[in-house]
Specification:
Elements: E1 2-5, E2 11-16, H1 27-35, E3 46-49, E4 57-61, H2 70-86, E5 91-95, H3 104-117, E6 137-140, H4 147-172, H5 180-192, E7 197-201, H6 203-208, H7 212-218, E8 226-233, E9 242-252, H8 261-264, H9 272-286, E10 292-302, E11 314-316, E12 322-324, H10 332-346, E13 351-356, H11 360-366, E14 371-375, H12 378-391, E15 395-397, H13 402-405, E16 415-416, H14 423-432, E17 440-444, E18 450-451, E19 461-462, H15 467-475
Parallel strand pairs: 1-6, 2-4, 2-5, 5-6, 9-10, 9-13, 12-16, 13-17, 14-15
Antiparallel strand pairs: 3-4, 7-8, 8-10, 11-12, 14-17, 18-19
Helix pairs in contact: 2-3, 3-4, 4-9, 5-9, 7-10, 9-15, 10-14, 12-15
The chain binds ligand BES and zinc ion (2 copies).
C-alpha cells in the first residue's frame, strides 16, 4: 500500500465528526444517513457504501471535534483501514477532517499512520494467510504549499511503521526460531544495508570482556549468547552520541526460580526491548537522521540445565561489582548490567536509555497503558517523555529517592538481584548502578510491549512500543 498526494482513487474515505453537517459531494446522502441515525460520526464508527457505480464512499467517525486528538484520529483511520481491507478495491482517496484544535501536520500524520497500522498481521506460520488488502494506492489531496511537507511526512511515517512492524515480527516469532544468533543475523541484514555498522560477539569475546553477569544468565542454555553492537554515525562531525540498550532474553523460563506455566506462556517476548532498539535503529538510519546513535543488545536465553546459575550464586559483573542471586528469574537486570556498563564505558554516549520487559511489578502498577520509567536525570526524563507524547506512547515516571536506592544493597555481595518490595523501581535502580554518571532513563515495557488482546490499532501480541518514542527522541536529540 503506497500513500501518495493527489486527487485520485476509486473510493473516497471521509472522516466525519459528530458535529459534521454536510460533506461536499455527498450532501443529501450524508444528511439522510444522519437523520436515520445510521451514521452519527461517533469515534471509530464506520459506514461503507461501495455498491453505487459512481459514488463509492466510506465514512469514518472521529467523535466530537473538541475531543479529537492525534490518538483518536489514528484509531479512526485504523478502523477505516481495516474496513477497506474487506473491499476489493485498488485505490482510494482519504479526505482529511478539518479541526481547529490540531495542526495540518498532526491530522495528516495520525491519519496515514492509523491507516498504515491496519496493514499489519503476523501470519508467517499460518497455512491460510490473513486477507491482505487489495488497495495499492491511497491518495490524499493537499494544496500546493503543503505538498512538500506532506511528502516528507508520508516518507517518514512509512519508514517508521516498517520498523515498528520489524520489531513486532521479531517479538512475535517464537524462541525456537528467534535465537540469539538469529536475532543478531536479522540485525545485521536489516541494518548494514542502511548504513549501520553491526558488530556481533560470541561467547569467547563475551568471556574475554569479563561480562560475568550476562554469562551467568546464559549458562543454562544450549544456544550461544550474542552481544550485538549497532553504530550509526549520522553526524560524523560531532562527538555527541545517544545510546540505546535493549533487554534481549529470547526466552525467560525463570531458571531455577521457575515461572508458573501461565506466566511462561508468552516469555518469548522477553526480548521486546532488543527488538525495539533494532527497529528504532533501522528507522533512524533509513530516515537519514543527522545524529549519532549506538544500540547494544546482550542476547541469550534464561533456561534450566545442569550448568544453569542458581539462587545463592554470587557473580561478578563486568564493572567489578558483585551480585548475589536471590532469584534466577530476575535475569534481565543482570544481562542489562553488563550491557549498560559496556555501553557507557566503551562507547562514551552523552545519554543512555534502556528498554526492557523487566518486571511483572510494572504491569501490576501501570497495566498495559503506560510504560514505567526511572531516571537519574530529570532533563533527560523530560526529553524522553516529550518523545513519548509525540508518539502517543505514554511514559510514567516512578520515584528515585535515596531511600529506594537502599533496596538493592547486598549483604554477602555488593548488590542483590531482587528487592523486598517496589519491584519495578528496585529493578530500575539496580540498573542505575551500572551507568556511572551518564544521564540515563530506564523504560520498563513489560506491560506495553505485548498484549493478550488487541487494543485500538495495537494488535494482539507484540505492539512495537516504544520504537516510535526512540525514533522521536533521536530526532530531537
Ligand atoms: N521477564 C520478566 C518480567 C515480565 C513479566 C515481562 C511479565 C513481561 C510480562 C522478568 O525477567 C521477571 O521475571 N521479573 C521478575 C522479577 C522478580 C523475580 C524480582 C518478576 O517481575 O516477577
Ligand atoms: Zn525473569
Ligand atoms: Zn525476563
Amino acid at each position: 500500500m503506497d500513500i501518495r498526494t493527489g486527487n485520485d482513487g476509486e473510493v473516497r474515505v471521509y472522516f466525519a465528526a459528530k458535529e459534521t453537517e454536510t460533506i461536499a459531494g455527498l450532501e443529501e446522502t450524508f444528511r439522510d444517513l444522519k437523520v436515520r441515525e445510521v451514521f452519527e460520526g461517533s469515534q471509530g464508527q464506520i459506514f461503507s457504501n461501495i455498491m453505487g457505480p459512481d459514488s463509492k464512499f466510506l465514512l469514518a467517525g472521529i467523535g466530537e471535534k473538541q475531543k479529537a486528538s492525534t490518538e483518536s484520529l489514528r484509531r479512526s483511520a485504523y478502523a477505516a483501514g481495516k474496513e477497506v481491507m474487506k473491499l476489493k478495491e485498488k485505490s482510494l482517496q482519504l479526505i482529511l477532517p478539518e479541526l481547529e484544535s490540531l495542526s495540518f501536520a498532526e491530522i495528516f500524520r495520525s491519519i496515514i499512520e492509523g491507516f498504515l497500522y491496519s496493514e499489519y498481521s503476523f501470519d508467517k506460520y499460518l497455512k491460510e494467510k490473513k486477507t491482505k488488502p487489495t488497495v495499492e494506492n491511497v491518495y490524499i489531496d493537499v494544496t500546493k504549499d503543503l505538498e512538500n511537507e506532506a511528502r516528507q511526512m508520508i516518507d517518514e511515517t512509512t519508514i517508521l511503521l516498517d520498523s515498528v512492524f520489524l520489531a513486532r515480527d521479531l517479538v512475535n516469532d517464537p524462541s525456537m526460531a528467534m535465537t540469539p544468533a538469529a536475532l543478531s543475523e536479522v540485525a545485521r541484514s536489516r541494518l548494514e544495508k542502511v548504513g549501520v555498522k553491526v558488530t556481533i560477539w560470541g561467547r569467547d569475546k563475551i568471556e574475554e570482556m569479563g561480562m560475568g553477569a550476562f554469562l551467568a544468565v546464559t549458562q543454562g542454555s544450549d544456544q550461544e549468547p550474542r552481544f550485538i553492537i549497532m553504530e550509526y554515525h549520522g553526524d560524523p562531525g560531532s562527538a555527541r552520541k545517544l545510546a540505546m540498550v535493549g533487554k534481549g532474553i529470547m526466552f525467560d523460563s525463570g531458571g531455577y526460580s521457575l515461572k508458573p506455566p501461565k506466566s511462561m506462556e508468552t516469555m518469548f517476548d522477553d526480548m521486546a526491548g532488543a527488538a525495539s532498539v533494532i527497529g528504532a535503529m533501522e528507522a533512524i538510519a533509513k530516515s537519514g537522521l543527522k545524529k549519532n546513535v549506538v544500540a547494544v543488545v546482550a542476547a541469550c536465553e534464561n533456561l534450566i540445565s545442569g550448568s544453569a546459575y542458581k539462587p545463592g550464586d554470587i557473580i561478578k559483573s563486568m564493572s567489578g561489582k558483585t551480585i548475589e542471586i536471590f532469584s534466577t528469574d530476575a535475569e534481565g537486570r543482570l544481562t542489562l548490567a553488563d550491557a549498560l556498563y559496556y555501553t557507557v564505558r566503551e562507547l562514551n554516549p552523552d545519554k543512555v536509555i534502556d528498554v526492557a520487559t523487566l518486571t511483572g511489578a510494572c504491569v501490576v502498577a501501570l497495566g498495559h497503558y503506560a510504560t514505567g520509567a526511572v531516571t537519574n536525570n530529570q532533563d533527560f526524563m523530560q526529553e524522553v517523555k516529550a518523545a513519548g507524547d509525540l508518539a502517543d506512547e505514554l511514559i510514567w515516571e516512578l520515584p528515585n529517592t535515596p531511600d529506594y536506592r537502599e533496596l538493592n544493597k547486598g549483604y554477602f555481595a555488593d548488590l542483590r538481584n531482587t528487592t523486598e518490595n517496589a519491584g519495578a523501581i528496585g529493578a530500575g535502580l539496580f540498573l542505575s548502578e551500572f551507568v556511572e554518571d551518564t544521564p540515563w532513563v530506564h523504560l520498563d515495557i513489560a506491560g506495553t510491549a505485548y498484549l493478550s488482546s488487541e487494543k485500538g490499532y495495537l494488535p494482539k501480541g507484540a505492539t512495537g512500543i516504544p520504537v516510535k518514542t526512540l525514533y522521536y527522541l533521536t530526532k530531537r536529540f
